[in-house]
Structures are given as C-alpha cells and as structure tokens.
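Study this pair:
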Amino acid sequence: DWNALAFKEPEVKITPPEVIQKPAPVKKPKKPPVQPPSEEPAFTTLSIELDSIRLSAELISLDTLALLAEMKQLKADPLMSYKVRKFHIPPVKYEIKPKEFILPLSLIAVSAVATHTEKFRDILPIERSNPTDRLTPFDDVFQLVPAPSLFLFDAIGKEKHHPIDQFFIMAISYGLTTLPVRYIKSHYDASRPYGGNHSFPSGHTATAFVGSHIIYKEFKDSNPWLAYSGYALGSVTAGARVVHDKHWVCDVMAGAGIAILATELAYIIYFPIRNLIAGEINKIFDKYIILSPIIYSGTTGLSLSVQF
C-alpha cells in the first residue's frame, strides 16, 4: 500500500543532551597566621632523634644491640627530651617620666637663690652659737652607707632592675654628680658656717643621695618602706653636715638636688647603651654556639660546640 507508506510519519527519537557536571572548586588550605618573632627566645626543645645521635668511635667495646634497645626506649618516651635555655640577655625598657625632674630642679633652684642671701642660707630657723671647725668622722663614713645598703635591700625586697644594672647606674650617677659639685665649689666661693670656704654645694650630701635615690627608684613600686628608707639614710648625712657647722641648709639641699638629677640622667643614659651591647652579645651566641644531645654506650649527655 503505497499511500499508507507515503503518509506514514517517520519516528524521530530526541536524545536529551548530556549534562556535564562541573568539577567542585578546590579549596585552598588556610595558611596559619604568621606569629611575630618573640623578643626573648623561650625554651628550645631538642628532641632525641635517631638521625641526630652521635656514636663515639673511640669506644672499643660497643654493645650494638643494647645501644639500639636503649635508643628505641628513649625515642618511645615522649617526655625524654632536653630543654636548653639559650644564652640571651633580654632588653630592658625604661620610660622617661618628666615629673621625676620636679624634685631635684626645685631643690637646686631654691638653694641657689638662698645661698646668695646670707639671712636665708639656713632657710629653716636654726640657731648657731659659736660655730667651730671640727673633725667629722661620722659624716665621712655615713655618706657611703646608702650605696651598699642598696644591694642589701636587694636581698630583702624585690628590686626593679638587676643588681648588675644597678652597679653600672650607680657608677654613672657618681660620675655625673662629682663633676658639677667640684666645678661649682671651685668657681663659687661660699663661706661655711664656721668660717671656711667652698660651702656650696655639700659634697657629702651629694654622695649619700646618689645611693638614696637609686634605692627609692628600685623599690618605690614594690616596697615603699625600703624606698623611703634610702632618703632617710641620705638625710642623716645632710643633717649631720648642718649640725656639725660644715654647711648651711641650702648647701645640703643643693647637694641632694644635684645627686637626684644626676641619677635620673644616669638611668636615661645607661639603658640604651646596655640594650645595644646586649643585642650584639646575643647575636654572637646565636651564631657561634651549638648545643645538641649526644648518646654514648649506657650514658646520655649534651654536646657544646663553640666556634671561634
């Protein structure tokens, strides 16, 4: 039947397009935050590993099996590690406080004005009857008491800085105190109560108050009793110089003011120099010194290598 064949619609099969799946995006692992390097290195842990173990070639009788068993036992124990502190001098921060200069500058200013007025040289109403020149062994010795008292107080209280730092600060303070005291004495010829010369300022008082003010600065935050006892020791010397007719009150005030000012400047000068030197020493030790674990037959220890 040609007519049936002619009008028969062809069968058309429509194949749906294949769905192409996109690959899942690859997530990049998050990088851990970068920690800034610490100023002071903490404990450095040197774990015992098989690769880092040195065997002594000089040992003739070496029980290999016993040594290997010991190595495995050490490696299996997580607590078996050497903790070594690197040689490191930490830096010390020192903050300059302008208010610390109020007291010494005030003492120097008031005493400088009073010494030019004969009526107010003693400032306080002190009666002097027949002042005479006399030997003062007590004054000569007691002016040195505050300085060693500082290191004695270090054993009793909690000081702010290391005793080695205190020693160098004291040395700088004495240098900064001695120069202006001697210069003023030689260029300003002030008469003493007993009639002598070179009264202004008091050198004994200046010597005493160097140690007194360092004691105050080292213990004012931890132990006020120790801090102000330093000023008490310095005041004993100052009072003795006035009582023994060696100085006017304005002289001892000037000596104390110069010593306190010089000590404040010594703190400012010392710590930048100290931190600079400490940094250079730390670089040398980090570069040329190696400390590593070492195991011999039946014994363990540390190996120290120093490169010159």
